[in-house]
Amino acid sequence: MGEGQKGGLKLHFDGHLRLEFRGAKVTTDAGLLAVRELDGALGLTETAGEIIRDNRTGRNVQHELAGLLRQSVYARLAGYEDVNDQEALTRDPAMRAVVGRRALERNAASSQTVSRFETETLATEQNIEALSSINAVWVEKAIASTHTKRMILDMDSSESPVHGNREGSSYNGHFGSTCYHPLFVFNQFGDCEGAVLRPGNVHSADGWRSLLEPVVKGYKDSGRKLYFRGDAAFASPGVYEYLEENHILYAIRLPANQVLSREIEHLMTRPVGRPPKKPRVYYHDFSYRAASWDKPRRVIAKVEWHMGELFPRIGFIVTNMSAKAKNVVRFYNKRGNCERWIKEGKHALTWTRLSCTRFASSQVRLALFILAHNLGNFLRRLALPREVSHWSLSSIQLKLIKIGAKVVSYSRRTIFQMAEVAVPEALFAALLERIRCLAGAPT
């Protein structure tokens, strides 16, 4: 690379090329404009000022709460998981445009302002609850634009490793790390209905009721039938009784024991003949009552014989559904989508980066990551045209949000000249049209 000149930096391999660094006139995140369009159509971040309590007392308050929330959430959706990244984003044209007209005329909030917003304003007990309320409102608005007669709730826990002295972190023997142990509830569309950050050494189902109950109450008068799926961590009488009292159909993995094994002894003999390449699968359902249960419940056993394996694969599911055993197992197996969405949050958004000393601040970071995940998921399932509706959050980040654009400003308007690479103009236009239809749909 050659020396700097008035016309930019010169490249020796091709004298016709020049490099100019004009960060205020170029953006790499022009796709955030589509996210902001969806945000406005559904009326998401505009409610922040009504729900979040503003504890700022100074007279020189330059940034509104809704704009600060947008900046925190949008940055995470674009892949900027740390507050330190905000220093560059404060001058980014796309971020300035989505935060609000005032930021477009000047700058977005600085990293210090965003840090105070996240670690002071939002880190109060009242505002941590407010973030959960905001998420519930967001999901409610997205579901209002979704045609469905039933809601399937999947609950699962995950690991968020930490380094150094972090309040609330503990060693977890199952994960083999010092971590937090958050609990999540997703619906069948990939929206995170709720999440709670917990110490690393708690049981996988610890606090399940306090997380699930507000979600169930939110659907009480919706007219939609509720279903619940969970792994063996949620196989407890308290879970069954709560779900049955609220008329929720469920399928929950049941740990094996000697009594259950005796019920399927007739399926434990290896089938006669050469085993086929395709596994041989057998189902058996029966009534079972554990000593701690208040009544017998239906249990379904699945036995799979695989070629080359000496012993069969066995699984038990407790359920109050009346469907055929095979269909109940298929229904339960789809809870694997919940694990996939958690992995998306870990890899695309890096929501395991909860690097705050105070536990309350880490709670805020997780809540902001959940909002970013849901915003990206709303974009995927409500706005993306059919030909790209299969995109993962990582693909949305790399192909849609990370669109380069040159910014040209006039006295009355600002134009983003978008690069046509992964997303051509026709596809972007179709996306905006779907968003406009959402804005006009009744909620």
Helix content: 25-40%
What's the total number of strands? 17
Largest β-sheet summary: 8 strands, mixed
Uncertain residue segments: 1-5
What's the helix count?
Answer: 16
Average of the residue pLDDT scores: 91
Termini Cα gap: 57 Å
Structural class by SSE content: alpha+beta
**Approximate shape:** globular
Task: Report strand order across the widest sheet.
Answer: 10-9-5-11-12-15-14-13
Estimate the strand proportion.
Answer: 15-25%
Which radius of gyration do the C-alpha atoms yield?
26 Å
Describe what you observe in this structure.
There is one protein chain. The chain has 443 residues and is an alpha+beta fold. Among the domains are: 184 residues, no CATH class; 98 residues, no CATH class. Helix content is 39%, strand content 19%. It is built from 16 helices and 17 strands. An eight-stranded mixed sheet has the order 10-9-5-11-12-15-14-13, sandwiched between helices. The chain has a three-stranded antiparallel sheet with strand order 1-2-3, with no helix packed on it. A three-stranded antiparallel sheet has the order 4-16-17, with no helix packed on it. Strand 14 and strand 15 form a beta hairpin. Helix 8 runs parallel beside helix 14. It is globular, with a radius of gyration of 26 Å. The N terminus is likely disordered.
